[in-house]
Design goal:
By secondary structure, the chain is an alpha+beta fold. It has helices at residues 3-9, 13-23, 36-43, 91-100, 108-111, 123-126, 138-141, 169-180; strands spanning 52-56, 76-80, 133-137, 151-153, 159-161, 185-188. The mean pLDDT is 78.
C-alpha cells in the first residue's frame, strides 16, 4: 500500500471530513440525475477551483497516479474507462478497492475464466467506446458549452437531454464536448 493510501486509511473521521471539505467540491443538484450538459456545466462552477477537472462517475477509484492529470496538455481531452475489479489490478489498487468498496459481491463463479464479468475478460478492450472519467482543462470549456449540443432526438423526434448510462450517451457527450472546443487530441485510456 502506498504512503498516500496508508495516510487516507489511517485518518480519523474529523481529518477525513476536513480533507474532503478542502479538496472535494460538490455542486448541489436539485433536479434529479443531471444530464451530461449539467454535469459539465457544474464543473465550470466557481466553487470548483483549479484548472484541471477530473469529472468521474461516483464508483470510480484512483491511485496516486491520478496526480499526473495536473500535467495534462491543455489541448488534450482525456477519457478513461475501467475494467472494474480485476485480477490485473496491482496489490495496492486491490487493497484500496477492498477497503472502500468491499469485494463480498465477487463470487468464485464470477472469477471463473470466460464467465461474463470474469476477471479474465479485458473489459477495456471490449468496450473501447465506454468511459467513466473525463479529464480536461476548465479554461478550454469555460463559456463554450452549448446546451443544444447536449441534446439528441427522442423516439418522438423531440430534442431532449441525454444522461449517463443511456445507450450511446458517452459518444454523444464526447461529440458535444468536441463541438465546444477543438481539442488537438482526445485520448481514450
Amino acid at each position: 500500500m502506498s504512503d498516500l493510501s496508508r495516510q487516507v486509511f489511517s485518518m480519523t473521521a474529523g481529518e477525513s471530513n476536513e480533507l474532503l471539505t478542502n479538496k472535494l467540491k460538490c455542486v448541489d443538484v436539485k433536479t434529479g440525475q443531471p444530464s451530461y450538459y449539467q454535469m459539465f456545466n457544474n464543473a465550470m462552477a466557481e466553487v470548483v477551483t483549479g484548472d484541471v477537472i477530473v469529472l468521474a462517475n461516483a464508483d470510480m477509484a484512483f491511485d496516486d497516479s491520478m496526480s499526473l492529470a495536473r500535467s495534462l496538455n491543455p489541448e488534450v481531452l482525456a477519457v478513461l474507462g475501467t475494467s472494474g475489479f480485476s485480477n490485473k489490478m496491482t496489490a495496492n489498487i486491490k487493497n484500496i478497492y477492498e477497503e472502500m468498496m468491499g469485494t463480498d459481491y465477487i463470487t468464485d463463479v464470477e472469477q471463473r475464466s470466460g464467465h461474463p464479468g470474469s476477471w479474465e475478460i479485458d473489459s477495456c478492450a471490449e468496450l473501447i467506446f465506454s468511459w467513466d472519467t473525463w479529464i480536461f482543462h476548465k479554461s478550454k470549456l469555460m463559456g463554450r458549452l452549448k446546451e443544444a449540443n447536449f441534446k439528441r432526438l427522442s423516439q418522438t423526434n423531440e430534442l431532449v437531454p441525454f444522461y449517463m448510462n443511456e445507450n450511446g450517451a458517452e459518444s454523444a457527450a464526447l461529440w458535444a464536448i468536441e463541438q465546444s472546443y477543438p481539442f488537438s487530441s482526445t485520448y481514450n485510456a
